[in-house]
Specification:
By secondary structure, this protein is α+β, with helices and mostly antiparallel strands. It is built from twelve helices and eight strands. The chain has helices at residues 12-41, 45-68, 71-93, 108-116, 119-139, 151-201, 204-212, 234-238, 243-263, 289-309, 344-354, 365-371; strands at residues 218-231, 267-272, 275-280, 318-332, 338-342, 361-363, 375-385, 389-399.
């Protein structure tokens, strides 16, 4: 039944609608044949013809549906004759009692309309069902007063005509609920994947804010440390590598940097080509922002050195710059979000890297003042920095005492 009328381009909703419609049509159509044959056996030819004709019409409609895939056609036919023919059968037998309430089959129509159409459309079908119930009561006195069915057979039909429609309703609702639960599970899984992807792009706090509000996100931070790192000479070296090798090398290095950032409570901001940017103190305050970033920088350098010693295909070094101060942080973009930093501390940090030395970690005066008692620093002296003029800088060499980074 799941394959009847199915098309590769069908959406999940369309497939569910087709399955429910065709399943109901085939189940009730087969019941129509059985009911017709039973009435024929008791000599009730007109009552037998009505459900038998229902079975023929329904199966022909399913055949047309399997060829055309037009579920609207099958749905209209099914709802229309399933609403009318049970009442015609009941009237031909003599009304509610003599007909064993066979019109109970028509109760399927409002339910199917609710599952397969809109609530507004289903309301019209429900009103039609109520109208036929009222009409049956009004014409009851004018119907036949007896038929060829014995009281025992009528009682059996009463049980069947109430029980089987109830069973069909239960099966359809069970299937619908199962499909809904599956869809909700898949939706929840996709939501988790989307949230993981969002957290890979944005800090957790920022991601939560974006989910809850569409307002612009911008915050000022007085105490921030910013790190820029560049893989020295990687651009010309990458010309000797395949695209896959280029990506694999950078992925290996930057993935390790990411683990260091997580270890020290530092926020990775972005990568630009073979450059890496991170910050401490955003988007959440960090009491030891400068120490955290300096410790991370030392471990980044140590990793690159150990990588070369252990026989890597490429001997690579990094050049690192760090500076501290105030900064503004916020989200840029409407389709591809990007969390970024602005301010003098960011600009100076970038200059510390670009004016630095391969294999060295150069820090500005603001950072030096914050970490000088906990780290070993070598004075580089005054250097001319583009856009800033002469600046006093230091090379970060080692750590003196361990700071307590947040867990």
């Amino acid at each position: 039944m799941e394959r009847i009328g199915a098309r590769p381009a069908d959406t999940e909703d369309e497939r569910l609608c087709k399955r429910l419609t065709s399943a109901t049509a085939l189940m009730t159509g087969m019941a129509g044949f059985v009911w017709g044959l039973i009435y024929f056996a008791f000599g009730e030819w007109l009552p037998g013809t009505i459900p038998f004709a229902y079975g023929v019409i329904i199966h022909l409609s399913v055949l047309i549906f399997s060829i055309t895939g037009n579920v609207r056609f099958l749905r209209r036919v099914l709802l229309t004759i399933l609403l009318l023919l049970p009442f015609l059968l009941m009237w031909s037998l003599g009304g509610f009692v003599l007909g064993s309430v066979v019109a109970a089959w028509a109760m399927l129509v409002p339910l199917l309309a609710l599952l397969l159409t809109t609530p507004r459309t289903a309301l019209y079908w429900f009103l039609g069902f109520l109208g036929l119930i009222i009409l049956s009561a009004l014409i009851g006195p004018f119907l036949r007063t007896d038929n060829f069915l014995s009281p025992l057979v009528r009682d059996i039909f009463f049980v069947i005509d109430v029980g089987i429609p109830a069973a069909v309703i239960f099966v359809l609702l069970s299937y619908f609920v199962a499909q809904r639960d599956t869809a909700l599970h898949l939706l929840s899984h996709e939501k988790e994947k989307t949230e993981r992807l969002l957290l890979n792009v944005l800090p957790r706090e920022i991601a939560l804010l974006l989910k809850e509000s569409d307002q612009s996100i911008a915050d000022a931070f007085d105490n921030v440390s910013v790190l820029f790192a560049d893989v020295v000479g990687f651009t010309p070296l990458s010309e000797m590598l395949t695209p896959r090798q280029t990506v694999d090398v950078l992925n290996e290095i930057f993935s390790h940097f990411d683990s260091l950032a997580e270890k020290h409570g530092v926020e990775k901001i972005r990568t630009i080509g073979d450059g890496y940017m991170a910050a401490a103190g955003v988007p959440r305050p960090h009491p030891s922002h400068a120490s955290a970033l300096c410790s991370m920088a030392l471990e980044m350098r140590a990793y690159m050195q150990s990588r070369n010693v252990n026989g890597s295909l490429l001997d690579l070094e990094i050049r690192v710059g760090i500076n501290s101060g105030a900064a503004v942080a916020g989200v840029i973009g409407t389709t591809k979000f990007h969390y970024d930093l602005w301010g003098d501390a960011v600009n100076v940090s970038a200059r510390m890297e670009s004016h630095g030395v391969a294999g060295k970690i150069q820090i500005g005066h603001a950072t030096y003042e914050l970490i000088k008692d906990a780290f070993v620093c070598e004075a580089r002296g005054w250097i001319e920095v583009k856009g800033k003029g002469p600046m006093q800088t230091w090379f970060l060499e080692d750590v003196v005492v361990r700071y307590a980074h947040p867990s």
